[in-house]
């Protein structure tokens, strides 16, 4: 399938009518994960823009990285004028450049399609390649698909910045006295969100086009293959066809409470990716509890959502995630655990970017999937991983959170 065929709904930047939101909060955030199975490490890149119209105490951008050994880097981008996002495709950029440099870039390259090139002298001399993963649903090399971005290489960042498309990701960040990072890698998308031979789906269902959910949520790429390098505190990590993932959120603020499970690096299943989540969110003025599970496996998409079945969960404030879901044809069980302390992460809230979320990229996860056949379901899949992304956020109490959702649009 072509790259355009894998593009999901909501791939573009959602900020369109500043005048209609002049007095209301708005954020858009992107999460990209790169997993290195042979090293047992991950890089999670988190970008956000708040109140892009400017003029509020919260206007600005943020870039965060959860790196090896759960080390954490965070940088702010105060000038919203230096942010750019494509309104029709997955492409964005933000930098801390001086205004005159930014104007030069905008005049020279804004909206100009080209092939990004690797910065000179940044080839990997030696490689700690991750295990290669293959899929029956792969697409041609990403180099055949030029994308719209604003700059060709990191030399155009006068200090710090990042840029990305569906097929490239590049940037430089430096936290004074703490962590630094540089990266450049290409991405070959494998799964979007849905069956490969059909139009890709909205994660939150067709009603999400009306922006009645707060916030919106879309998996942009359930699985991809990344090749390139990341330099973290001076150590170069080179990789080839490493598992990659991307999703986004947008709206006024994150949910009141949520949990999240993600993995596309399983011990014995190269062609398997899972994303699940749930919590309490606002819909047209009231709160609802919702949950979902999505699995891509060997070209098939298994979706468990409130409008096609039932979803149940039991999640502790930290350390334990359990989900059960079923639809007309299948059943799934998930169990995620983590015995190490979480890493606090900043997320957009009504009070701006605050520590209201906790993460790990080294969670343990077991997935079981059955096909319903009469009174005796058939086990289709059982897989484990020690590199799952596990998260809880918002107002989690000191006790278990249990939930159930069915026959409503998530």
UniProtKB/TrEMBL annotation:
GO MF annotations, alphabetized: tocopherol cyclase activity
Ranges in a coiled coil: none
Region feature (Disordered): 95-146
Comp. bias intervals (Polar residues): 98-109
Protein name listed in UniProt: Tocopherol cyclase
Source superkingdom: Bacteria
